[in-house]
Design goal:
The chain has 308 residues and is mostly helical. It folds into 2 domains: 54 residues; 240 residues, MetI-like (MetI-like fold, Orthogonal Bundle). The chain contains 12 helices and 2 strands. A two-stranded antiparallel ribbon has the order 1-2. The longest helix has 54 residues. It starts with a helix and ends with a helix.
Length: 308
């Protein structure tokens, strides 16, 4: 009996090892597919971008302030698209960060388990609403019923302010959910020690738990910012399609994603310089998000080491 049991245990261990090797191989394949997809995106953008800069000087593209690639006298200065993108992103994050972090602190530190189980899924429902719905809401209700009564009829019907605020509401669940997970992962011993020293609930939440979860909170903010930079439908519907070098949020602007979506409909000749602008703008957008993510990764790693 003992010998039979030993054989069965050996065979069982061998099967488990084979199963683990299969799982390891599948996980490795998933990682490789992700890496290859990234390289494929870079390659597809690089080919068209190189062809574009064979026709247009890179200095005119990067530093030019006039963007009119589809006109008879085309201009390829991408600065108005960059400023439009950054303006709407800044407005969106000015809304999403305080609301998202406030929601996260409440859910992680103040809400009872029953309230948390109820409120968090409802909050996350916002992330499932199609962005085109947010865009129409901004255009047909938020601008005429909220923005214009507050700021006057001088506000254009297509404007950066309405698009940015509604985009901020869309991003709130992302910031709140990831930040709440990071704060909930902070060891209870840190809270207990702070309460033992006489800290109030607010002091423990903001001076102990918040700094301890800072790496996760920064990751949530960066994730929300990346989504804001890459958002298309809200700005396409609510912000307009006018390349405008301005920081006035009541005016119409065009973002990089808006231009790509509007130009890629097939109304221009494939292979033309105007068509190649799609790749150049896409590469610019990719570089911006890559730089943002690289900075955030270094920041997260730095503060993650502090609290390990």
């Amino acid at each position: 009996m003992a010998a039979g049991a030993d054989i069965e245990s050996v065979l069982g261990a061998s099967r488990r090892r084979r199963g683990e090797e299969v799982i390891k191989g599948l996980l490795f394949a998933a990682a490789i597919v992700s890496v290859l997809t990234t390289f494929g995106i870079v390659f597809s953008l690089a080919e068209g971008t190189i062809e574009f800069f064979a026709d247009v000087a890179w200095a005119d593209f990067i530093f030019g302030t006039d963007w009119s690639p589809l006109f008879s006298d085309p201009q390829f200065g991408v600065v108005p698209l960059i400023t439009g993108t950054l303006l709407i992103t800044a407005i969106a994050m000015a809304v999403a960060i305080p609301l998202g972090l406030g929601s996260a602190i409440y859910l992680a530190e103040y809400a009872t388990p029953r309230v948390r189980k109820t409120v968090k899924p409802i909050l996350e429902l916002l992330a499932g609403v199609p962005t085109i719905v947010f865009g129409f809401f901004a255009l047909v209700f938020f601008t005429p019923e909220v923005i214009r009564p507050l700021f006057g009829n001088d506000v254009q019907i297509f404007n950066a302010l309405s698009a940015g605020i509604i985009m901020g509401f869309m991003i709130v669940p992302t910031v709140a959910s990831v930040s709440e997970d990071a704060m909930s992962a902070v060891p209870a011993s840190l809270r207990e020690g702070a309460f033992g020293l006489g800290g109030t609930k607010l002091q423990v939440s903001t001076r102990v738990v918040f700094p301890a979860a800072l790496s996760g909170i920064v990751a949530a903010i960066v994730l929300g910012t990346s989504r804001a930079i890459g958002e298309t439908m809200i700005v396409l519907i609510a912000a307009g399609q006018v390349p405008n070098l301005t920081i006035n949020p009541t005016e119409s602007v065009e973002t990089m994603t808006t231009f790509i979506a509007a130009t890629a409909k097939g109304d221009i000749a494939t292979g033309s310089t105007a068509y190649k602008t799609i790749f150049a703008v896409g590469t610019t957008l990719f570089v911006m998000t890559f730089i943002l993510n690289s900075i955030s990764i270094r920041f997260v790693r730095k503060y993650r080491q502090v609290y390990e």
